[in-house]
Task: structure prediction
Amino acid sequence: MDDNAQWMAAGLFSPSKARQQEAQAKDWLYVDEWLRQQYAPRRAPTFERNDDTLQALMSLVAVNERADEQRELIDGLEQAALDEARERQADGHHGEIYEAIERSMSSDAAAAVGSLANTAVLLDTATTQPMVIAAGLMNVTNRHFALSQQLARTEALRKTIALERGNIQQLLKEVTGPSFVVPPDLQDKIAEWTRGTKHLKSKLNEYNDRLVASQLVVPQPDINAFGTKRADTERLRSEVAGLNKKLLVFEGLPSTPADAQAAVKDAKAQLTTLVAERDDLFQGLVPT
Result:
């Protein structure tokens, strides 16, 4: 059973695994919809879809939603304050008192009161007490630090994804190159190698018989004949060594054309299977 079949079997027969996969699929749908809204009308970039990427994107979506909620809350408070000010101005209540207070305040005091009011509104506090505002500022600082760390991790993850994407593209270029293409004359070469192997084997047997026969013959005590036999023996050994080197090229090939064609057929089937698996793997990298 291959890895895909084992994964499918684990998802079918394990309720906890099935629930986990269902929850992960819903998270991916939520993230894809958020990315589509962020990049609209352009298309969101492609990236590797794994658990680390999903967790980082879910954290980014949560941070973005909290920021949107805070911005909407601040906008609502500012609008409510503006509407209340307009209503009071329209009704004319306490207008003269406010104007008298503003005229009696110095420029520094007016600036300080304005800054305090703006800080209270931005921090979403219902009071202008210094301790409450200080606590709000500390919370904002903590959130700013957490967001900075999250953005740094997200940027590191983005760089890793970009690097892996480049490696995958390079690998794809290599596996689709000419090195993985079966040459069209492979069958003719196999037939030629088979014939050459048979011829070399017959020659090797002949040379082995001649070598054995030459070793069995007891030479006469003639120095010249001994030197000639020795030269012939060395020549035969050199030829045998050369033939052995040539035979190494044809080692493992079938001995008959029918067997060679069967081996080629099996190799083509294996190549088709590998190409299909490769296409499935790369298809899984492209977001649907």
About this structure: Residues 47-179 form one domain. The longest helix spans residues 130-175. The CA atoms of residues 193 and 250 lie 7 Å apart.
